[in-house]
Design brief:
The protein is mainly alpha-helical. The protein is built from 17 helices and no strands.
Length: about 450
């Protein structure tokens, strides 16, 4: 049931969704390949990589709320959020390539280069992605249409995951001709060039329709104070941290899992190919499910089942490829149902804040949730690197110890699964029901008619 009849054209949803395809060429590489790149190609130890992921990740995450405040106060003929897709597209592409470049430097300079380019990538990603994510909330005020937009986004994001997960390692081998450093640079060069093109398309076709009341009084402290009073936002913040912590722990360990436990690194591409196909089907089902039972219920059961299915991996021998892939197909389908819901909920909690406090700060609310996303990414990457170091993982050792192999399997199953279960527990306290969501939408629509009259 839609709150009002503001339907968007397919072309706008499709073009806007391409922006997530662009961003996820890099984001998916960070989730699935960064630990492999930095330890096996670049030459960092797992502990060094884990520390960099945490320190740079948490440090750059702070920039997301700052970017939200900046975006909320941007005034151009294109709107508040759209122009940032234009301004950041080329820097995003250039820095994406530099981050996956291995320079010929001494060890200290090389470590500085890694930290510097990784930090720049994270900053430009925030400058691009916070305004992009905020657009979902201002393209329409219809809750169902908002979830439909998020579904397009998630379909493209997961398509990027499919492409990166299935093709990146073969591309690195083919393009590098045995030189993985060259292979990574060329592979990310292709992905980054496509990112620039797709960001420009997303900028061209999207439109901002919802504007805050021109008479509303805003301040940075006031916007941040409203966040503290926004219970659903606090819950969504915690959910997002656990969601991406689990995603990064799982994503970073699966390549070592197949190389060392299963004994064949190339199976990683097959595993991702089948799993991400199922995930796309799950994303496609998300809007229908949320219309029937609500966003909170879909998200809760998705996280609960995802956590349990992750843990189930520990009971399957690492060499039993068919059962492992079958389990992943089910897990990814269930997980895919939650993808659009998270992004759609960002708009809903912004609406809740406006409905409760009479002030709208879409960029601040969205950026604060994106901040949680990057906290989760930092924690997940760091925890994975530290756990691998704890279990004695040596990236360039051909045969790992039995203790290390068990550790890799535990990271891929129990540790990642626990994070998703924690997200499910948090969702019990999310206060925006299906009924309240529609009430908020109708009330805000009436308010906007009054101040636009």
């Amino acid at each position: 049931m839609s709150g009002n009849g503001n339907k968007l054209a397919f072309s706008e949803k499709f073009g806007y969704g391409l922006g997530d395809l662009a961003a996820n060429f890099v984001f998916q590489a960070l989730m699935a390949l960064q630990l492999d790149f930095y330890t096996k190609t670049y030459g960092l130890t797992p502990a060094q990589a884990g520390t960099m992921f945490l320190v740079v990740g948490l440090g750059s995450a702070i920039f997301n709320p700052i970017m939200g405040v900046i975006a909320d106060r941007t005034h151009t003929r294109w709107g508040r959020f759209r122009p940032w897709l234009l301004w950041t597209s080329v820097p995003f592409g250039v820095i994406g390539i530099l981050t996956f470049t291995t320079p010929h430097l001494n060890p200290v300079a090389k470590l500085v280069y890694a930290w510097g380019t990784y930090l720049l990538l994270r900053l430009i990603y925030a400058a691009n992605n916070v305004p992009y994510a905020s657009l979902t909330a201002v393209m329409t005020e219809d809750p169902d249409e908002r979830n439909s937009i998020a579904s397009y986004r998630q379909m493209f994001a997961n398509s990027a995951g499919f492409i990166v997960g299935s093709l990146a390692i073969p591309m690195v081998r083919f393009l590098g001709g045995g030189n993985s450093a060259l292979g990574y640079q060329l592979t990310m060069g292709i992905f980054s060039t496509l990112s620039v093109i797709f960001f420009l398309i997303a900028f061209s076709v999207s439109k901002e329709r919802i504007q805050p009341d021109a008479s509303q009084k805003t301040s940075v402290l006031g916007d941040l104070g409203d966040l503290v009073k926004n219970g659903p936002w606090i819950t969504l913040f915690l959910v997002t941290v656990f969601y991406f912590t689990g995603l990064l722990i799982r994503g970073n360990v699966m390549l070592p899992y197949f190389e060392n436990c299963a004994g064949n690194k190339m199976l990683f591409s097959w595993f991702n190919g089948f799993g991400l196909t199922a995930l796309l089907i799950g994303v496609a089902c998300s809007t229908t499910l949320t219309k029937r039972i609500g966003k909170r219920a879909v998200f809760f059961w998705s996280m609960m089942l995802t956590g349990l299915l992750c843990i189930a991996l520990i009971f399957i021998p690492a060499t039993a490829i068919v059962p492992i892939i079958a389990l992943e197909v089910v897990r990814q389908f269930v997980f895919g149902c939650s993808g659009p819901v998270l992004w759609s909920m960002m708009g809903d909690v912004a609406d809740f804040g406006e409905w409760k406090n009479g002030r709208r700060a879409t960029g601040t609310v969205t950026s604060a949730v994106v901040f949680a996303l990057w906290v989760g990414v930092a924690l997940g990457g760091a925890i994975c690197g530290w756990l691998l170091a704890f279990y004695g993982y040596l990236p360039r050792l051909a045969v790992q110890s039995a203790h290390t192999l068990l550790g890799i399997r535990l990271i891929a199953s129990v540790y990642s699964g626990a994070a998703f279960l924690a997200a499910a527990v948090c969702l019990i306290f999310y206060g925006i029901s299906m009924k309240l969501n529609l009430t908020i939408s109708r009330d805000l629509s009436e308010r906007r008619k009054k101040f636009q009259a």
